Amino acid sequence: MESESFYGVTLSEKEPIAQFDVPEIPEEYIVHSHKLIIKQISLGPEAKSGEFNVVQAETNVHDDGEKKTVKIPIAVLKVGETRSLRPNVEFPNGSVTFKLVQGTGPVYVCGKAEMNLGEYDDGQMYEEYSDDEDDSELELDDDCSPQTNGKSIKKK
């Protein structure tokens, strides 16, 4: 079962931090994948002229079996130059903190949260689909010509 939902937050001088957490899932379901996709980041109409507004994302990543926190700017906005971005940034399987690290905003961050749920684990799902066919043998057609990437090959 797949599920999508809208995600949106406003970052400002008064509220510079917003947290996205993976929602609670009923025990009978197993989360196969979950991700937050940021589709648009934009300045509000009351943003100050000449002021840079920098949005930072903070999330945890696994590197060589070690859990690390990564902080990276995902948007730099300025009235008269860049009022809106469409970054299409994905944050898989975890929480994300958005922070207005420079500027007074308001900055609007919006996107969608996608979740793929199942009622059984991946091992059971793999067994269900792999019992019927054996993909170890591939049949090749000896009569087919090789791919030429649009170039013609002259035979002599």
UniProtKB/TrEMBL annotation:
One of its GO terms (cellular component) is nucleoplasm. GO terms for molecular function: chromatin binding; histone binding; RNA binding. GO terms for biological process: chromatin remodeling. Residues 6-113 form the Nucleoplasmin core domain. Residues 122-156 are annotated as: Disordered. Its main location: nucleus. Residues 122-144 have a biased composition (Acidic residues). This is Nucleoplasmin core domain-containing protein. It comes from Drosophila virilis.
